[in-house]
């Protein structure tokens, strides 16, 4: 059984909202939770790496994109319970805002379809429940800093 399934404690993860102009990079998840839904690229933090390092590493590994972190956005809690009420998945995700620097986005084992989506169209995307609000907040933070 995966250590991510029925974990003994929450798992620390990162995500990154990468912007190229007024478009954000999205990737379809290839495993639970939220399998086949679009989300921000990201993944689990490895021991010994900072949150920034983890966010940029996951971005490169998942979709082959490079970016520059601009700000911390927010945290997202993902708790999925089974029929008995036990935590089947429990992640705490530190979400960052970044400005694109290289790469178009390439699907891989952890990221299915990859696409750039206009921020104004984010509500029409079949995404994770927190996707639209986290992207809108990230874009507002980016605009406030530029």
Q: How is this structure best described in words?
A:
There is one protein chain. Strands 1, 2, 3, 4, 5, 6 and 7 form a 7-stranded mixed beta sheet that branches. With 146 residues, the chain is of the alpha+beta class. It has helices at residues 51-63, 131-145, and strands at 11-20, 23-29, 38-39, 42-44, 66-81, 87-102, 111-118. It is globular and about 45 Å long. It has one domain (11-145): Nucleoside Triphosphate Pyrophosphohydrolase. The termini are far apart.
Keywords:
146 residues; alpha+beta; Nucleoside Triphosphate Pyrophosphohydrolase; 7-stranded mixed beta sheet
How are the elements arranged and paired?
Blueprint: E1 11-20, E2 23-29, E3 38-39, E4 42-44, H1 51-63, E5 66-81, E6 87-102, E7 111-118, H2 131-145
Parallel strand pairs: 1-6
Antiparallel strand pairs: 1-2, 1-4, 2-3, 2-7, 5-6
| Highest CATH level, the class | Alpha Beta
Number of strands: 7
Which H/E pattern describes the elements? Answer: EEEEHEEEH
Helix fraction by DSSP (H/I, runs of at least 4): 10-25%
Structural class: alpha+beta
Report the CATH topology name: Nucleoside Triphosphate Pyrophosphohydrolase
Q: Separation of termini?
A: 46 Å
Strand content: 35-45%
Number of helices: 2
Radius of gyration, rounded? 15 Å
CATH superfamily: Nucleoside Triphosphate Pyrophosphohydrolase
């Amino acid at each position: 059984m995966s250590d991510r399934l029925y974990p003994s404690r929450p798992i620390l993860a990162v995500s990154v909202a990468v912007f190229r102009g007024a478009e954000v990079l999205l990737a379809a998840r290839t495993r639970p939770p939220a399998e086949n839904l679009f989300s921000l690229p990201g993944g689990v933090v490895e021991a010994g790496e900072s949150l920034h390092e983890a966010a940029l590493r996951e971005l490169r590994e998942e979709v082959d994109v490079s970016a520059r972190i601009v700000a911390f956005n927010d945290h997202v809690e993902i708790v999925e319970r089974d029929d008995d009420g036990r935590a089947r998945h429990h992640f705490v995700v530190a979400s960052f805002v970044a400005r694109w620097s290289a790469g178009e986005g390439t699907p891989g084992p952890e990221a299915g379809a990859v696409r750039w989506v206009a921020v104004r169209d984010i509500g029409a995307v079949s995404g994770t429940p927190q996707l639209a609000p986290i992207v809108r907040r990230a874009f507002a933070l980016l605009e406030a800093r530029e």
